Amino acid sequence: MPAVSMTVNGKAVTADVDSRTLLVQYLRENLRLTGTHVGCDTSQCGACVVHVDGKARKSCTMFAWQAEGAKVTTIEGLAKGTELHPMQAAFREHHGLQCGYCTPGMIMAAIDMVNRKGNDLDETTIRHELDGNLCRCTGYHNIVKAIAAGARAMA
Amino acid sequence: MYAFNVERPATLKDAVALLGKDSEAKLLAGGHSLIPVMKLRLANPSMLIDLSKIAELSGVKVEGDTVTIGATTTHQMVANSKELLAAMPALAAVPASIGDPHVRQAGTIGGSVANNDPNADYPAACLALGATIITSKRKIEADAYFKGMFETALGADEIITAISFPVTKTANYQKFKHPASGFALVGVFVAKGKSGVRVAVTGAGANGVFRVKAFEDALSKDFSAKAIENIKVPADGLNTDIHAPADYRAHLIGVLAKRAVMAAAKG
Question: A3-77, what's its fold?
Answer without folding.
Answer: Ubiquitin-like (UB roll) (3.10.20)
